[in-house]
Specification:
Blueprint lengths: L2 E7 L3 H13 L5 E4 L4 E3 L4 H5 L9 E3 H4 L5 E3 L3 E5 L4 E4 L4 E9 L4 E2 L7 H4 L5 E2 L7 H10 L3 E7 L9 H15 L6 E7 L11 H11 L2 E4 L1 E7 L4 E7 L5 E7 L2 E3 L4 E2 L2 H4 L25 E3 L12 H19 L6 E2 L4 E8 L2 E7 L21 H19 L10 E2 L10 H4 L4
Parallel strand pairs: 1-2, 1-8, 2-5, 8-19, 10-17, 11-12, 11-17, 12-13
Antiparallel strand pairs: 3-4, 6-7, 7-8, 9-18, 14-15, 15-16, 20-23, 21-22
The protein binds flavin-adenine dinucleotide.
Keywords: FAD, Flavoprotein, Oxidoreductase, Quinone, Transit peptide
Cofactor: FAD
GO biological process, one term: sulfide oxidation, using sulfide:quinone oxidoreductase
């Protein structure tokens, strides 16, 4: 077996930006990226597809076009990890051996976690911005609904882009308000969690819009079943005293954010923590048991907001630390938990949430330019006009935009081969 310097599992946001960042730092590195898909998606664009602002074609590119020059793309799926042998096993039984490994397969949308949901999608008013194919249907439904009930749901955390379920709702409400139909539409937000957003600083601005649109907020209310033909959704509601009851609600439109979890081959692997995520140090993103393995993006265990914005800071952190390990040194780049969620509260305005571990606010821009806790036009322009280009041209190409990693002082370590680090596992 050839031994590659770096094997990267997944060519999504995390995998591509890390491969590019590694090559920018060390041209000529032998990197293999493994991903079975033909297409790469700019998922943050799907909210704007569902809101009628973007065409979905803007969010999709051929995979081959985003693979950095000099990186080998293996068009295959990984089935298992064998960290003690420094190998991954592909679905066809082939193996790849590595000196260091980057795990970035994203997360799994668990459509079967809600009874009847998979069969209902795309018909009878049931939609989700979480799918490339389905986001245009959200906009179609929004445009055609003239009255009745529109339900928006949010599953238990963690999910990718925790604000996305309510972003879809605000953009639909804004359209109904502008077209004079909102008074004839009952809108409710069924949230399995107990708060509108995990970081309290942004809640007041969001509550202004909840009031403006007349949204009925239902907390601790989890979607458990959908009957598409009858257009009925079933929710499990839990009370503060531990009681729970099931209710049924008819709908004309239902926007679902599905329950989410780590991919099956990660959950069942020696890399997973109890909850199934790749278990890394939240600071260095190095695996806690296998020192030559790093993970970033939606698949890993750190308690940051699972967003592409987070990867902007995670990729350089992983690149610096992985190269250190290849050189027999200790990791010294530190990730602060940065993540961001541009909340599209109306067409033309965004509440730009940016925060790190512990809910610490980490604004990129000075507050005189963009005050993240207020809805601003500039944040909308950033999302609509600038972020897609930043994604394709800077993030995926390893050109680090305001995101140089924080470095600790150099910490020499007894010379150790990366392979030897996996044996502590
Ligand atoms: P992904 O980009 O999902 O890539 C995972 C890759 O791994 C895929 O290409 C997949 O094919 C591959 N893979 C899976 N299984 C295997 C396997 N067995 N073997 C090999 N490869 C495999 N983020 C923001 O920053 N701002 C936003 O406004 C925002 N809005 C969003 C709105 C929606 C509707 C959605 C769905 C997401 C949004 N996000 C947003 C989140 C963002 O898109 C993700 O956090 C980010 O793409 C995660 O990157 P990743 O590399 O971990 O996973």
């Amino acid at each position: 077996l050839t031994i590659h310097d770096v094997v990267v599992v997944g060519a999504g946001t995390g995998g591509i930006s890390t491969a590019a960042s590694l090559l920018a730092r060390r041209p000529g590195l032998d990197i293999v990226v493994v991903d079975p898909r033909d297409k790469h998606y700019y998922q943050p664009g799907w909210t704007l597809v569902g809101g009628g602002v973007f065409e979905r074609a803007m969010t999709e590119r051929p995979m081959a076009s985003v693979i950095p020059k000099g990186v080998r793309w293996l068009h295959a799926a990984v089935a298992a990890f064998e960290p003690q042998r420094n190998e991954v096993v592909l679905e066809d039984g082939e193996r790849l051996r590595y000196r260091t490994l980057v795990v970035a397969p994203g997360l799994e949308l668990n459509w079967d976690g809600v009874e009847g949901l998979r069969e209902s999608l795309g018909r009878n008013g049931v939609t989700s911005n979480y799918l490339f194919d389905m986001a245009p249907y959200t906009w179609q439904l929004t445009q055609s609904l003239r009255g009745g009930t529109a339900l928006f749901t949010q599953p238990p955390m963690p999910i990718k882009c925790a604000g996305a379920p309510q972003k879809a709702m605000y953009l639909s409400c804004d359209h109904w308000r502008r077209t004079g139909r909102l008074k004839d539409i009952d809108v409710a937000f069924h949230n399995a969690g107990g708060v509108l957003l995990g970081v309290a600083d942004y809640v007041p601005a969001l509550m202004e819009y909840v009031k403006l649109y007349g949204i009925d907020l239902r907390f601790n209310s989890r979607l458990v079943a959908v009957d598409g033909d009858k257009q009925i959704a079933r929710f499990a509601n839990s009370g503060p005293d531990g009681t729970s009851e099931t209710i049924e609600r008819p709908f004309d439109m239902l926007h679902v954010c599905p329950p989410q979890r780590a991919p099956g081959f990660v959950r069942s692997s020696p890399l997973a923590n109890e909850a199934g995520w790749v278990e890394v140090s939240p600071e260095t993103l190095q695996h806690v048991r296998f020192g030559n393995i790093f993970s970033l993006g939606d698949a890993m265990s750190a308690p940051n907001a699972k967003t592409a914005a987070a990867i902007r800071k995670q990729a350089p952190t992983v690149a610096v630390n992985l190269l250190a390990v290849l050189d027999g040194e200790a990791p010294r780049a530190v990730y602060d938990g940065y993540g961001s969620c541009p909340l599209t509260v109306e067409r033309g305005k965004i509440v730009l949430a940016e925060f790190g571990y512990g809910g610490k606010l980490l604004p990129t821009f000075p507050t005189w330019l963009i005050e993240g806790r207020k809805p601003t036009r500039l944040a909308w322009l950033l999302k609509e006009k600038a972020l897609p280009a930043i994604y394709w041209e800077l993030l995926l190409k390893g050109r680090e935009w305001l995101a140089g990693p924080t470095l600790l002082p150099h910490r020499p370590q007894a010379q150790q081969s990366p392979e030897a680090l996996s044996e502590k596992g």
